[in-house]
Amino acid sequence: KREKIYIKYIYLNILGSERVSTLQHLTVRRGESLTVPCFYEEKYKSHRKTWCKGGEWIIAAYANTSTTGISVTDHPSQNMFTVDLKNLQDSDSGKYWCAVEIVGAPDVRNYVQLTVSSDPAVWVENSRVIGQEGGGVSVQGFYSSGYENKEKKWCRVKTWSCYPFQDSTVNISDDKNNRSFRVEMIGLQKSDAGWYWFSAGGVGVTVHLTVTERPTSKMILISVIRNIC
């Protein structure tokens, strides 16, 4: 059984945190893309979702629409909407908001502080990884100089829980000399699929894990027969 350390109070903004939740501090390399997951309560499934920018809360995009460099998709079955940001530049740095519109009342929201630079505090080799059920997957992360002694975390976004550096199915190693951070997950289950967060010193980047089904004996047999023929 996987041991997790629950640290919800660290990552959630108090304002609206029980209704809309997301990661507060994300970083990305200039010119690259980033996906921000925003979670909401069950009762907001049918409400319109928005992605807003700046202190004046200017609407940048609505759910299930796309504008230049921004695509917002609602996933009602998961009580979540995702914001895909493309070709990010330094000028895109700033405060953003995951928001749910409420008719006749203030909208509920939570903020994300985004930093774009040529040398981000944290980055990963692949932001989307795929593993097979029962198999394993690895994620390679890196961090900038000055973060060697900062606390590193590998967390599940949906449950706001973090894994210890060593347990039966997750192994996390921190190579301070090369400023690299490696996560290895084994014995993958379908329930492991979803969004994760690698962070150093409270600044992080998102990683999405897809878990595919294990091939059945019948599928393997058909493959062998085809190869023989």
TrEMBL record:
The keyword Cytoplasm does not apply. This is Ig-like domain-containing protein. Pfam families: V-set. Keywords: Membrane, Transmembrane. Its main location: membrane. Residues 18-115 form the Ig-like domain. The keyword Cell cycle does not apply. GO terms for molecular function: transmembrane signaling receptor activity. It is found in: Membrane. GO terms for cellular component: plasma membrane. It comes from the Eukaryota.
